[in-house]
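quick one
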Amino acid sequence: MAILEKLTGDYMKRILFFLFFLVFTQSWITAQTPPSCGADLYREWYAQQYPELNEQAKEMQEAMAEWALHYTESIHPRTLITIPVVVHVVYQNGVQNISQEQIESQLDVLNADYRATNSNLNIVPPFFQPLIADVEIEFCLAARDPEGKYTTGITRHFTNKDNIGLDTDVHYTATGGADTWDPLHYLNIWVADMGDNVVGRATFPGEAPPAEDGVVIDPRYFGTTGLAAGSEPYHLGRTTVHEIGHYFNLLHPWGSGLPSCDGDDEVEDTPLTSNNYLQECPSTLQASCGSLDMYTNYMYYTNDPCLAQFTPGQKVRILATLAGPRAALTNSTGCQPSGTDPGNYPVFKLLIQPNPSPGQLVFECKGKEGKSGLLQIWDPIGRLLYETAISTNQPYTWEAPATWADGVYFVQAEVEEEVVVRRFVLRK
Ligand SMILES: [Zn+2]
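structure w/ zinc ion:
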C-alpha cells in the first residue's frame, strides 16, 4: 500500500507537470498566466487513475441528472442544511500555519455567499438579478470529530514537502499531509501550498478515493484576513466558494477545459460562454456565444470582488448531489457540540483492531455497561454492506468476506442516539 501510494504520488507529479506544461506554456510566450482553479485537471487525472470509480461516478451523474429533472420546490420542501467542515492546515512555516481568525473569515464568506447575503449583490447586472439564488446551505466548523470528541474543526500538521497541496500526499498523515475525516459526514478542506499556478482544487462526487475526497486551497487564498489580505484579486475567500461548488458537482459555465461555445455546464440558467474572465472585472455588460455572459457567477474565474451569485439552476444541481452521493452530509452530527468543554467525551468509543487488517477485525464499543446498539459497515461510496446488533464493552469479532476489495471502509456504531464513525483499512 505504501509503495503503491508512493508510486501514485510520483506518477501524479509527472502527469501534473505535463498538464501544467501544456496549459501554461502557450501563454508564457506573452505573459505569465495568473493562477487559477485546478479542478478540471485533477478530474481528468482521477478519471485516468481510477477508471472503476469513474464508471460508478458516471452512474451517479445520471441519477443526479434524473433527480434534478423532476425537482420541484413543492415536492422537495427545504430545510436549511448545515455542512460540517474540518480544515486541515498543512504548513511548512509559520506564515502558512494560518490563524483561527483567518479560517473563521472563510466560514463567514461561505455562509454569506451560499445564502445570498453577500454585500456585493448590487454588482449583478439587472438582467441577471432574478437569477440570484439562496442555496440554503450553511457551513460550521465541526464541533465533534468522527469519534464523537470535542474539536475546534481545525487540525494542524507540519510538513517538509514543497507544494504538497498539488499532490495526493496532502491527504495522508503518513506522507506528510493530514488524514481525511469520514468524508461521508464531513467536508474536508486542506489548506496547503499549491505553488504559483493553482489557487485551489476539488473532487467531484464519487470520482476520487474517499480518503482524497474534498477541497484543497492554497493558504494565500483562504479567507479574507491574515495571509489572504494581501492576495488581491483573490483576497475575499471566493476561491473556496468556487471549489466547494465543484465539490457539489457544479461545472465551470463553459463546461470542462478551455472556454468554448461548444461546452456547457448542464445548467439551463447559466448562459453559454467562450470567456472565463480570468483576473478580469468587467465594468460593462459582456456577451459571447450569442448571449450576455454571467461573469458575476461564482463558477467563473473573475476577480473575487466581482463574483456575487449562484443561480436557481445551480442550486438544483447542488441539491441533487445532497440527495445523492453526498446525502450523508445532511444527517451528520458534526456540527453538534459533544460537550461543553474539551474534556467532555461521549458516552462511548469505538475501538477497531487491528487497523489496517488482513481480514479479521475486532470491534468494541467502550462505554456505559449493558447497552445495546447497531454496528454498520459502509463502503466508500455510501453503500451499506453489513449490519449487526452489538452490546457495549463486548468485543465483536468479524471476518471481512473474501470478495471485499482492499481499501478503506467505514464503521458506524450507534448507541442510545450517540453515533461514532471510524474507518478501517482492509489490506489482504
Ligand atoms: Zn473551477
